[in-house]
Each structure stands twice: as structure tokens, then as C-alpha cells.
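Chain A, query sequence.
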Amino acid sequence: MAKSNLFHRFEAVASQPLGSASKIIKGVLRHRRNTYSVEVIVYSQNQQEIVDKNIYLRLIVNPAISLKWNDEVEVEYYLANRFRKTIQLRILGPALFSYSPPRMTKHLAWLQVMSGSLKEALEGLALKKGSQGLGESEIKFFFALPLKKLKLILEEGEGEGRWKILNHHPYLIYHPQILNFLEQKILRRLTKYHQQQPDDLGMTISKMRKNLGISARATSYLANRLTAKGLLRRRDDYFYLPEFQPQLTAQEIEILKQMETSILKGDLLSLSVDKLQQRTGLPRRKLNMLLTMLIDQQKIIKSKDGYYLHYQWLEELIKKIRASGQKEITITEFKQLTGLSRKYAIPLLELLDQIGVTRRKTPSVREILPD
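Chain A, predicted structure.
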């Protein structure tokens, strides 16, 4: 996209006959009492009939000028009989998109959309921008919209399902068709990645973005949307397909069993991933994969502080808390119940808060919530 608001080339539409069979018409363009030389290129009449009865044109104006969507200009030229002809044209925006002759019908269909209402034109432009999305600066190239009005239009259009706003400062919007296309692209890429890299848990946002060639904002939004739909799973910074099954050696399968047993006994509650790595001798990437497999199998749970607990051990602890008949439990009582030091008792209590077993009442007291 160009950075200046001055352009030489524009797309335009005429609703009246040109009176000339020529494909190229030379004349003058008048706008706001200024006069410019102009070359009017008429798109194929045969192709135009497929779209509608309007006549779509490309203008080459000299010197460069700032014209926005829906601006009206007057073009004056001479016909073959030397009769002077004046027509009114409506600007559809700068001619920033190239096209090849075989794609003429598609280009004209897009111009037809651009000749509609403001929201239709914005939607058409968002679709035209494809996987790169439509940014605020690009919107300003096409439309003369104060920021307050732009904000209102974009929010209304999002509510109508015309586009999705991925960023507000500055604005970045995507057409729903493009987002759906990119979702499928992510799923295909991950399928291929799992086939080629069976030892890797999945792809990070950074790797996904590089693979797709789109912004980090769009990649993160799409990955999280697929996760919310259940089509992806996330573990730490990695996204992977729910059906993905890592290839494990016999040694790794045995280590996986040992890890589950240790977590069930509570041995790994006080161990960091670094210490786990030292104990198992596994690369960090493989260790994360094994822990993820245990989480996916609902055998262990990870607290936000990075500690791992066995579901069975946690369920037994919850039963003990609720069987106590108490309405509250202090940190001291909780330490006595679990045999944990304060260093590990606090993260565990926070996990119980998170899953709705307890609720923080004071810094040292938790309310026990009913089942």
C-alpha cells in the first residue's frame, strides 16, 4: 500500500453512457474548481454486462490528486465528431490492486461491491485485502471518515457480521470469509507439522505466524478461536491438534508411567520442570510433551504456578476438605491436612480457589464452598 494520500490512478463508476466506443478516452478532470489531465480506461464492455449496467473505469490523473470513495468528479472530453461531452463520475477509491485479463470478471464484481453503500464498500475492501487484513491507514486512503464516525461504522459492521475487529488502536479488521479460510489453513499446517515432526508437541504463535505470513495479532486470535471451538489444544506456548499422539520410545513410555506414579504420591509437587529434566534426562521439549500427555489424559493438573498434581490425589484432598464439616479453613489447618509447607500450600489453595472448591476470605482464611 502507498503511504501518500495523493494518487494518479483511481477506480470510478459512471451511470450514464460515455458516447464513445473507444477503450481509452483522454480529457480533463475537474474537482473542487481544479483541473487535471485525465486518461479514462474503459473496462471491457462484454465483461461489464456480466456485472451490471454501470460503466466501470480506471482513471489516470496528472498531477497526482487526493480523491476518496464516493467523491464526485466531472470529466470532459471530445467525441469523434468533435462534440464536447461532459459526464459525472463517482470515485470508488485509488487503484491499488492489479488484475489480469482472465480475472476481469472478478475485478468488476469487486468494483460493483465498492459502488454500493459505505458498509458494503468497507466489507468489499476487507475481503480484497485477504489474509493481511484491512488496516486503519488503508481505510483512510479510501474513505474520508473522521475517527469518531469510523469507530461507529466499524462497531456497527462487526455487530452485523460484516467483519471482525482484531485491533482498535490502530484499527485492523478481517472479513469473516478470510478468517474461516485462515482457520482451515492453520489446521492443515498443523496436520502436516505433526506428520513431519512427531517429536514436537506443536507450533508456537511465532512459528505459526511465520508459516502463514500474517500478523501476530491475527495468528493469536485465530489460534485462540480454534482452541475455544475445541479444534486445537494449547499447552503453555504450544498449539496442537486434539487427536495428535506423539511417538514414544519404550524408555519414554516407562518414564511416563514413573512420572504419573511420582505425581500421585506427591513427589513432583515440589519439583520444578528443571529438576524433572535432571531426574529424567529428557530434553525439555520431550518432557513438556510427556507432561502434556498426562494432562490431556486427565491424570494430572497443572497449577498456574507450575506445580503438577494428580487428579486422584486432588479429588481425595477435596473430599477431605468437604468431609471436615468446616465452613472455613486456615492456611495452618490446610498445611496440617496436606503435610505441605507454606511454599506449596499457597499455590494449591489458589488452585482450589480457581476450580471453585474454596474462596479467599482473608489472606489467611478460605471459605469452603458447597459441592
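The chain has four domains: 1-99, 117-174, 179-237, 250-368. The first strand starts at residue 7 and ends at 14.
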